[in-house]
Protein: histidine kinase
Amino acid sequence: MGGKLSGQARVARARQWFDAFTVLLAIVFIAVAWPTLHVTHKVPAAAAPFIAGFAAFPILLLRVNPPLGWAVSAGSALMITLAVPNQPGNTIPFQVVHILVLFALVFAVAVRAPVRIVAVVWLATSLLFATAMAQTGDSFAESGFGWPLAITGLVVFGLLIRWVVVSRQALLKSEEETELERARRAILEEKARIARDLHDVVAHHMSMVVVQAQTAPYRIDGLSADARAEFESIGTGARAALNEIRGMLGVLRSDGQLPEHAPQPSAADLPMLLEAAQRAGVPLTWTVDGELGAVPETTGLALYRIVQESLANASRHAPGASVRVHIACAEELALTVGNERPIAVRTGDHSVAAGSGIAGMQTRAAAVGGVLTAGPRPDGGFEVHARLPLNILTPIA
Structure:
């Protein structure tokens, strides 16, 4: 905690200090106005404290209710002008303390009150001073615009202060909203990155488990009925787990996904990916025309993830079917991943939840300026085509 005050506590403390200041100011004003009232006006001794109080005490409403304080001060000034005669030689209809309090309240109204109230206060105060001071015989007041001009300047200054405060508050609010939006976007981007990695890595290896369990009866001769049932049970459980993972990824994924900035696989890692899929039981062949090590990092990452997802889809939706991967590096990188008609026939409920694999591959291709198409072949198989540029040097932000 460290003794630091929150924003609301600081505001409350500032209000307390301001209220204490206005009370002290009112005491000073009444101490000045009461003893000097008989010098400026002809008043009975019994009425002096009341007239001095009307001059000094409206300052107490400076923060609480400036329009009400102004109404009391202006109304009492008008009544004093009309009902209380001046001492000989005094040309000001009400005390200097009264003028100071009235000006302070006009300024407070200009800073805090609604604009329509500010307009009424400005007009009424200008008329009050224009008519009351014009009777003094002073050349400044007899001009008819001196005091109203001073009041107008005071109101304009108050409105400028008000505009600065309002603008500052709007700026602070905007900065807070910007920080919140920036934090929200960072969270969404991190969730999207996690979702892509989970989908590309976990789902891929889970699919390998599924395809191994499904193709084991066709790859291993002499399996007993119990062994076949065990493999079928493993495949069913793995598919159920994969469906749950894909459901979780649907919550994490979001639009506007950005490429990762952390170290990621490259095109040079593709042979290991293909060999791992082959060891998992996928009947896979591949050819590479060109040098994968020359593929830029961003394009290589997109290529790796597209191949990974394509193999996972082929293993999941066409178990036992042969898969062929062809990569050509020339002016651009061309990728083809195709599988034959599936030879394994599923039994029971082996439905797989609709995923976002193809959409994710298209997003990755588009992120580096490439295109990807995917669809069934006439012979019953499925094929993925991607064309990726080789001149991408940095990730697209």
Notes: Residues 254-262, 345-354, 392-397 have pLDDT under 50 and may be disordered. Residues 186-389 form a domain with the Heat Shock Protein 90 fold (CATH 3.30.565.10). The first helix runs from residue 7 to 40.
